[in-house]
Design goal:
Chain lengths: 115, 106
């Protein structure tokens, strides 16, 4: 059974940094592209970034390009999102998801950017 | 970027009704479209992939159609648990983009 568990969310001041993690189990992690998606409070879903199975390819939405970095460690079955220069508008629940068609979602981790 | 426009943004229906939600892409995305349902306070769940393929375990009263730029999600025999917000996602070209959501009230 596919299981994705995010961690690392919390309260951070504007301009600060945070690193999110996603622990994967129940499938061969190294076979799949992985994705980060977020949802601001009361708002819709926003696709953020993807990383290919061997980390060769990554892509980002413009709103986070240059500030966020996606990475993975296939030996640890883990996906990461390094978030720098955080802004109030980055406040959201952050989900990791499997593959580019988003077949499975984690339960999400809340990031709050506030002074 | 490809824009995904969902309509309607909100709708009200009754148990037993049939409803259709439309998603229009700003350019051709072939069939690289998925539909998701997000119940209040819960994690989104995929219902349909490749525009018309039903996810395993999803009731057959959900169906998807379309290709190119126009797509539909149809729900027949509405049930109370269908109260949710529905989203489409194009995964044809980066950055991938979601529709703005359709809130369905029963």
């Amino acid at each position: 059974q596919v299981h994705l568990v995010e961690s690392g969310g919390g309260l951070v001041k504007p301009g600060g940094s945070l690193r999110l993690s996603c622990a994967a189990s129940g499938f061969t992690f190294s076979d799949y592209y992985m994705t980060w998606i977020r949802q601001a409070p009361g708002k819709g879903l926003e696709w953020l970034s993807y990383i290919s199975s061997t980390s060769t390819y990554t892509n980002y939405v413009d709103s986070v390009k240059g500030r966020f970095t996606i990475s993975r460690d296939n030996a640890k079955n883990s996906l990461y999102l390094q978030m720098n220069s955080l802004r109030a508008e980055d406040t959201a629940v952050y989900y990791c998801a499997r593959d580019t068609a988003v077949s499975y979602w984690g339960q999400g981790t809340l990031v709050t950017v506030s002074s | 970027d490809i824009q995904m426009t969902q309509s309607p943004s909100a709708m009200s229906a009754s148990v037993g009704d049939t409803v259709t939600i439309t998603c229009r892409a700003s350019q051709d995305i072939s069939n690289y479209l998925a539909w998701f349902r997000q119940e209040p306070g819960k994690v989104p769940k995929r219902l349909i992939y490749a525009a018309s393929s039903l996810e395993s375990g999803v009731p057959s009263r959900f169906s998807g159609g379309g290709s190119g730029t126009q797509f539909t999600l149809t729900i027949t025999s509405l049930q109370p648990e269908d109260l949710a917000t529905y989203y489409c996602l194009q995964h044809y070209t980066y950055p991938y983009t979601f529709g703005q959501g359709t809130k369905l009230e029963i």
